[in-house]
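Hypothesis: this fold can be encoded by more than one sequence.
Test: take the structure tokens below, design a sequence, compare later.
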């Protein structure tokens, strides 16, 4: 009976923790939805802000965020996936691979403001990129790169070694085995890590604050060397203004749009992951 009592107590504790996490998520999402749903309109999504963010919409912030995420994906995903392939498939359990894993794990714990200072000093000033969309995207790529590498490495290592051995036994090269067998089977896990990394990057403020984002802009970015608007920084700037009441609608509407964007990214990852799981079963 004592063992059963302990088991029940532990199960109650686990269940309580799970319910607490779900309740916290429900409260946060519900709070944003209730206060922001009345703000969402076609005008809010397609117009530039006017009169100190009391009229108009957040169209340039949406476009700037999408541009930023696209650049981050183009920069971080190839480097991260190829690095994970190199560590897992070519280095194995060597000392160099161990050192790389330690370095990646340490980089994943560095605060985002430190990456912002790195981007400011190295990209904006030393490389003379200036305050630009490219500088912000590269800084965010530095931030999410450890996450992409870690998720990709775990997904690649989850592929059974028997699959590699069978492919090599048929006379294929190591790269052919990786390209045609290892990567397709590990794609669901890699995609999950990529989307989670981009979701984190979409909400970061400190790195872009120091490297290229602006609060107001009358035109959309013309190229990667131009400044841009972004929803995370817009939220931060409006929340710290003295006229909070006048811009509250913009804040909650922007937060809801950003939340919807992140949810859609995760749903897209789930759909793609499920398709690959159906195609490559092992």
């Amino acid at each position: 009976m004592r063992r059963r009592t302990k088991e029940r107590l532990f199960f109650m504790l686990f269940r309580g923790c799970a319910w607490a996490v779900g309740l916290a998520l429900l409260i946060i999402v519900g709070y944003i939805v209730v206060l922001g749903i009345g703000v969402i309109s076609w005008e809010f999504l397609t117009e530039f802000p006017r009169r100190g963010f009391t009229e108009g919409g957040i169209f340039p912030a949406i476009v700037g965020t999408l541009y930023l995420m696209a650049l981050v994906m183009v920069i971080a995903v190839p480097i991260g996936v190829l690095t994970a392939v190199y560590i897992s498939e070519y280095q194995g359990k060597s000392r160099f691979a161990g050192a790389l894993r330690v370095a990646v794990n340490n980089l994943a714990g560095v605060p985002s403001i430190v990456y912002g200072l790195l981007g400011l000093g190295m990209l904006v000033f030393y490389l003379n990129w200036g305050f630009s969309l490219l500088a912000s995207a590269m800084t965010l790529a530095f931030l999410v790169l450890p996450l992409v590498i870690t998720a990709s490495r775990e997904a690649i290592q989850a592929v059974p070694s028997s699959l590699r051995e069978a492919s090599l036994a048929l006379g294929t090269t190591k790269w052919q085995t990786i390209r045609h067998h290892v990567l397709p089977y590990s794609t669901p896990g890699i995609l999950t890590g990529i989307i989670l990394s981009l979701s984190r990057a979409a909400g970061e403020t400190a790195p872009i604050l120091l490297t290229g984002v602006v609060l107001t802009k009358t035109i959309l970015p013309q190229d990667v060397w131009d400044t841009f608007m972004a929803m995370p920084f817009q939220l931060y700037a409006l929340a710290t203004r003295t006229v909070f009441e006048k811009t509250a609608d913009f804040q909650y509407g922007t937060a809801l749009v950003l939340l919807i964007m992140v949810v859609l990214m995760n749903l897209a990852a789930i759909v793609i992951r499920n398709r690959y799981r159906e195609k490559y079963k092992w």
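The chain has one domain: 58-279. Residues 195 and 266 are 6 Å apart (CA to CA).
Hypothesis status: open.
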